[in-house]
Write a structure and sequence with these properties.
The chain is α/β, with parallel strands linked by helices. The chain has one domain: 4-Layer Sandwich (Metallo-beta-lactamase, Chain A), CATH 3.60.15.10. Helices cover 36% and strands 24% of the residues. The strands form 2 sheets. An 8-stranded mixed β-sheet has the order 6-5-4-3-2-1-14-15. Bound molecules: zinc ion (ZN) (2 copies).
């Protein structure tokens, strides 16, 4: 080896060694830069005008390392909405740079615990952004009871935070949530909730019996349409609502895999768990059934969420889907937290990115 090569190697070793010794300082400097950049920018301003959909929770009550409790973020123009707010979803919103303080309203599909148990955290984070008004929470009748309950549970926390940070930082009038129930029942199965020139948000009844009412939502903005099924067994109302939608976000449960779990629970001497697993498929939809609905409705893309059971191995995706890919001829995606879809206004494009 020449003398020159030895000098170059020596310099490299010194640089790498120095970098290694200074890695803590370098990491802090990087962290500072990223924090300032993130906090200074409005993530929604950077997006093209259109409808955007992000999965802040693609899971269910079953523990899943890749999927928090149910949550779909919908951005229409400059407005940010969330549909359902399960456990871990508020944290995902922040990690996806869709700050909870920025949320204009939450919509609840029904009041099963897995769809509401992140609401307290969302209301708190919304308030922490110096909100002057409580978080608006839309839902079918019953939403007032849920929001009242969370407001009550967080009443002590509210007092501590006003005392600690002062009313200027934590305005008392901005804490908690404000329920906005909309009437919906068998006689009136649809509700128009937001009616603006460029934005329509509608709710429609689904079938999650004995959970009544349970609804899905339609978001339409500048020629783009996204439909969210909520929890439901296969229902004609979802197919009608999803007619010609750009994206149908449909819940999906594999009866075969859940049956296998039920048998395992029975064999393992866990009769209560086996009984619960036996009851679950009755009010949900299989991927094949969701694919049939999507195909009949003529949607461009089917995005499966509320994934049951958790798919711990990639190889389980095939058995989970069954024949869904043969049934539905459009694009089919098994949702994972952080999936983000951009639908530019007045176009047919759907662009997928990742935010986690
Ligand atoms: Zn659910
Ligand atoms: Zn449910």
């Amino acid at each position: 080896m020449s003398k020159r090569s030895l000098i170059i190697i020596g310099v490299l070793v010194a640089l790498i060694g120095g970098g290694f010794l200074l890695r803590g300082k370098i990491a802090v400097a990087l962290m500072e830069r990223v924090l300032v950049k993130t906090l200074a920018s409005d993530p929604i301003d950077a997006l093209p005008d259109g409808l955007h959909v992000g999965l802040c929770g693609a899971g269910s009550p079953l523990p899943d390392a890749d999927r928090a409790g149910p949550c779909v973020a919908v951005i229409a123009g400059k407005k940010l909405f969330v549909v359902d707010i399960g456990d871990g979803a508020t944290r995902n919103l922040s990690l996806m740079n869709l700050g909870p303080a920025r949320v204009d309203a939450a919509f609840l599909t029904h009041f099963h615990s897995d769809h509401i148990d992140g609401l307290g955290g969302l209301m708190l984070q919304h308030w922490g952004g110096s909100a002057q008004r409580p978080l608006t929470v839309y839902g079918p009748p019953g939403v007032d009871q849920v929001v009242f309950g969370f407001n009550t549970a967080y009443a002590l926390d509210r007092g501590y935070r006003i005392a600690h940070h002062g009313p200027k930082v934590m305005p008392p009038e901005g804490s908690g949530g404000e329920a906005r129930p909309f009437p919906i029942d068998a006689a009136h199965p649809d509700a128009l909730i937001i009616d603006e020139p460029d934005l329509k948000v509608r709710a429609f009844l689904v079938d999650h019996n004995p959970v009544e009412p349970a609804v899905g939502y339609i978001f339409e903005y500048k020629g783009r349409k996204v439909v969210i099924s909520g929890d439901t067994k296969p229902t004609a109302s979802v197919q009608a609502a999803a007619k010609d939608a750009d994206i149908l976000i449909h819940e999906a449960l594999s009866p075969e895999l859940v049956m296998m779990m039920q048998k395992s629970a029975a064999k393992a001497g866990r009769p209560n768990l086996a009984a619960i697993l036996h009851d679950i498929p009755g009010y949900h939809t299989s991927p094949e059934q969701a694919a049939t609905i999507a195909q009949k409705a003529g949607v461009k893309m089917l995005l499966l969420d509320h994934i049951v059971p958790p798919l711990r191995l990639k190889a389980l995706e095939g058995p989970f889907l069954g024949k869904a890919r043969q049934i539905f001829h459009g694009r089919l995606v098994i949702g994972t937290d952080g999936d983000f879809f951009t639908l530019p206004a007045n176009s047919t494009a759907i662009k997928k990115t990742r935010r986690l």
